[in-house]
Amino acid sequence: MMVFQEFFAGWEYFIKVKLPEKVKSKPKCRFPLLQLPRVVLLECIGNLDVLEIILFSLLSKRSKTIAKLICWNPIDIRLTSPKEQQICLKLSTDPGLEWIIHYRKKMKFIPIHSPWKYPYFQSNLLGPKALHILYLKDDGIEDITQMMEHICEVFRSPIVDMDIVEESIIEWIIKFQPIIRHVCIHKDVILSVESLDRILKNLEVTERFWLASIALDEYFQYKEPIPFRCIIINNSYWLTLTSILNANNSVIFLHDSKLTPTNINTILKEWQKGFKLRNLEYMEIDISTPLDRRRCKREIFKNLNLTVADENNGRPTRVKIYDENIYTLPRLPTVRNIIRSDGMILSIFGHYKVSEKLQTMKLSIFPYVVQNEILDNLKISELLLLSFVSKNMKKLIKSSQINTRFKNIKQIEYNNHGYPGVVHIPFTPMSDNILEFRERRDYETDDEFFQLNVSGNVMHFQLHYRYYFPQVYLSHPCDKDSAIVSFHYYFLDFFGDTVEYLYRENYKKFIPRLPQISLCLSFWSRQDYFRPENKLDRIRDIENFLASSPVLKRIDGMNLHSPERFSPESKFYQAESIILGLDANLVPDFLRHFQGRQTNIICDRWENLDLTEFMNRWKSGEGSRNLEYLNIRSRDIPRNEVLNSIGVKHIDESKTPPTHTLPKL
């Protein structure tokens, strides 16, 4: 808002006083906001967004008192720590918006005369969601906890989620807010038995408690119950059978557990008796100790009154883990059940990773109809693995699936933006990934993998620990380029020639020249922000790159906040879909030359006349004839004024409005 822009100078001055930074001169001008009449003042403050409210409330004690007078909507307050500390804020009334206060640690490569000095802002568009980020210098956890306390007080909302990355936060949260919905304690934060005992006995976690590995010796055992609804414990060697039986958890995840098959048998028996674990809804125990499959099965089910049911047999297919996190249970042909005295049924599933003496089903001995039914119920990743068994098996899969499931696959994406690299069908869940690319660790040996020959390239594989899709392990990052080439030619033969392949990567990294590949590139760079003097050279480099490349399917994350522009004939304007941040002066020029189908634009402001002129040209068919979707995010576009100026008509509620379906890009 314009009001915020006026008093931002006051905020910057305040921050530099509160944080140990000095100002050389006072702001040149300030808007006398606090001198407005009370009614007008409260109306102005009530229309600020979340970050603006926080900044205003930090100006003075009076401004904080004024901000607290307004009845704000409840806000979700979360402290997360992906790499650096972030306070994430969300309104339940507007789930598409998120405000983040990001605490930046000291950076090595920021020039002295960089325009980005703390604090600074940045807005990002991620599909249907928008992120508004305030960057502050990380001067220690005390500043962060003070900010959290301040936000809770102003918005009268509790903290709902905490990532605890150091031991001092434990003491703070116990004193400030001992009841909280979610807590995640990172690796090696717990350094003593006393710290573990203190948090388990003094903090009440009402939803999910996630504990990574603890820095205690391998012989440590904990026998007290963990009194939280949902517990997720990594490297849970220290959690004993006694602790589990004496607790009253609803959801339990134990990874790398040292529980034995006999311990699991005891858990099942005690549940069946009805005296222990009465609230249990879901339990998952991952045992890393090598076990004999038959012996393990025999010990787990010993002396249990089991019943065997066909398929689901009416049992729930989904389990609420916490909040909106819903886990879909596997669909199996038979399920083992035990029944409690009150009629409650517990269904048991198991998965065994056996490396030796693995028995296989001879698919070839079944009739063709049965083979088809089996193949139809396998995931795409499972069909891919099965195709490596033999040439005949690959031929069988293709003949069975080419005119059904494979025909319905419109796109396959190589997503190399993050780690690990993923090959998947767009808009499908992680469990349906086709494969992943990962790097081998130095201590891993060949006998931990199985090998497959992909288009003449022998690669090492493992299966994902939970979803069991193949993971390709590479000795060096540069090996991924040749691996993608090998898989691409394998996919062309396996899935047929009707699939479009999307290659998503960062600009100036490996860009393959392969058949049926559509490039989706990200052009975001630190240079866009920290080295503005290089922008002209950067645009020339991109121009030359685009001239020698096929027309791009999609351009992501480009920021053009300088007067330099692409030439009107540039392939930049021919990209099918573009997401970019633009200076307001560049928007009309961009839309005049854009020949693609979809674009998302973020700009500070846009003149109404420019928007009206563009819409009238589009309506008359004079420009942007291929445009199907245009999304502009700007601070101050007067909606009603613009709609009236371009002649938008109201459709009566009793009439069916015209529909227009857009393909996903």
Automatic annotation (TrEMBL):
Domain F-box: residue ranges: 30-75, 360-409
Record InterPro entries: F-box_dom, F-box_Sdz-33
Gene it is expressed from: Cnig_chr_III.g9169
Pfam family name, one: F-box
Transmembrane residue ranges: none
Superkingdom in the source lineage: Eukaryota
Name of the featured protein: F-box domain-containing protein
